[in-house]
Amino acid sequence: xxxxxxxxxxxxxxxxxxxxxxxxxxxxxxxxxxxxxxxxxxxxxxxxxxxxxxxxxxxxxxxxxxxxxxxxxxxxxxxxxxxxxxxxxxxxxxxxxxxxxxxxxxxxxxxxxxxxxxxxxxxxxxxxxxxxxxxxxxxxxxx
Length: 143
Prior knowledge:
The chain has 143 residues and is an alpha+beta fold. The protein has a single domain, classed as Nuclear Transport Factor 2, Chain: A (Roll). The chain has 4 helices and 6 strands. The chain has helices at 7-21, 24-28, 48-64, 131-137, and strands spanning 31-39, 42-47, 67-79, 84-95, 103-114, 121-127. Strands 2-1-6-5-4-3 form a 6-stranded mixed β-sheet. The longest helix has 17 residues, at 48-64.
């Protein structure tokens, strides 16, 4: 018998569903009004309103290079205290390439959530790799 999902798992299940369907308003509402976005090249504050403008462009870019699905395949919670939780996630991105089999690529990220009250909010998003570099290593580049 499978254990019941934790509230954090439920949050990320919804987040994954919104990611898969391109539901930008729901995705943006998962983040704090201002959050930190970081990766191998550094970190910067991002306003959710700016993120809402950039996200549709990112969806179009990924669609143009063959992105067909994004699936949450792993999640580990690490509670810091009663309010804050680090959540490490693993995602499978599947790309279709002309004349080739589909290509699954696994990427990881860590998020710091404020889980004091629902709805939870992402305060920090940290990509473990530069996704565009990862795609380039697999021969996928924007034209």
